[in-house]
Structures are given as C-alpha cells and as structure tokens.
Amino acid sequence: MTQRPHRIIVIDDDAELRALIQRFLAEHGFVVRAVADGVALDAIMQREPADALVLDLMMRGEDGLAICRRLRAAGEEVPILMLTARGDPVDRIIGLEMGADDYLAKPFTPRELVARLHAILRRTGPRAAPERGQCYRFGPFRIDIGAMTLTRDGAPMVLSSREFALLAALVASAGRPLSRAQLIDRALGRDADVTDRAIDVQVTRLRKALGDDPADPAWIRTVWGVGYMLAGADRC
Question: Are 174 and 233 in contact (CB under 8 A)?
C-alpha cells in the first residue's frame, strides 16, 4: 500500500522565508501548508491534522514559544520543530521546556531542515515500525514502547515525544544508571543536536509529569557523577 505523504505546517511571519521553506519541503515529498501566525495555524489545524509543525520562535504578536506552550497545554501532541535566528543555548532550552521536539537555528541549510523533520517523524510518527513486546510497569505506571502509550492507574497520560523517548530509554535500562550522552544516543539518536543541559531540562519535565518529587524522586533518580536511573521496572 502506498503511504500518504507527511503533512507539514510552516508558521513564520517572514513571507519570503515561509514561501522558500514551503517550496523546498514540497520538492522533497511533503504536503505543506504555510501560515503567518497562530490564528491561521489554529484555523488550518481544525480542518486538517498535521504530522509536524515548523514553528518560528521570533514572530510578531504571539511568538513561537507562546504558540508551543498553548498547544501543549491543550494536549496537542503534534511534533514541533522550532526555528530561531538566535543561537543561544538558553533559547534552545526554553523551547524544549515549552514542549518543542527539536530546535534549528537560522541560518540553516534546507537539507538540514528536511533531515531534522525526517528524524522527528521517525521518532514520533505512527508509521514508524513499533517495537513489539516492550511493555513495562513501574509503580502505578504502564508504558508500552511499541504503541507509544503511558498510563497511570489505567488513565492515559500525555508526554511530548522527547519525554516519552527519554522515559523509554530509562525504563529499558531500569536499575542501571545512564549517562547524559547515553540518554541522548538512546532516546534521540547520536546525531541529535542536544546539550547535556537540555537532557537535565527534559528529566525535570518528565519528573513533573510523573509527579516525582524532585527533592526525593521515587522513580527517576540522579546518580551523581554519572547521570540518571529509573529505580526499577517489570515487564508486563
């Protein structure tokens, strides 16, 4: 069966750059819609779902961070690739804290944009081949890595794609500490442009989602001088 092309929405208030990105992505097989602001994004997402968003950080009015935060607060799980003209690592960390899945600083090459989108879609898309039989329980939680689902006492929980990938890596090595470099490699891929500090941010967000006390975490423990470890988990 022929798979449908991935649908991408580009949100950027720079009309020239917006058109350039739309044209280049279309040439690489994506179905692309391009809009100038969050209002237009909301309207188009009501009509048709997207597989990923390419979202500019610096926009007039509601900026990319605000849009990202609003979407995540509403439970929207669509993968988000954040674009910014600033290369400060702080911007990257803030974007990840708001729920972005990846970050690309301007100027960038169009080929890098395509590669980043493909990487995000492989990690998050339903068309990615599931890993069978990888179901674990820890405490009140049940995680099915193949189905990319997490429940607490049977109730579904919403995580960003990066949070889920990080938790899956920790669960698969439960009881054994993983360094930040190992977590980047196992959760995001060794080519991911992610700093150790960004992993710390993701762990903080993941602990918050799980209700894990950061002062005395029951599940995701800090192993000083090494990295992080999930206390324990059993296969379903």
Answer: yes
Contact 167, 199 (CB under 8 A): no
User: Is pLDDT at 128 greater than 60 in this prediction?
Assistant: no
Q: How far is CA 169 from the centre of its chain?
A: 14
**The predicted structure's pLDDT at residue 126:** 46
14 exposure class (CB count in 10 Å sphere: 0-12, 13-18, 19+)? middle
Choice between 4 and 65, residue whose per-residue pLDDT is larger: 65
Residue bearing tokens 């700093």: 195
Tens digits of residue pLDDT in 10-59:
999 999 999 999 999 999 999 999 999 999 998 888 777 788 999 998 88
d(CA 75, CA 172): 26
187, two tokens: 């959760």
User: How far apart (Å, rounded) are the C-alpha atoms in residues 56 and 60?
Assistant: 10
Strands 135-138 and 155-156: unpaired
8 Å CB contact between 140 and 152: yes
pTM of the complete model? 0.56
Find tokens 């081949």 and name the residue: 129
Cα–Cα distances (Å) from 59 to 106, 233, 236, in that order, read 14, 44, 46
pLDDT tens for residues 83-113? 987 656 656 666 676 778 888 888 888 888 9
> 34-65 burial string, b = 16+ CB within 10 Å, else e?
bbbbbeebeeebeeeebbbbbbbbbbeeebbb
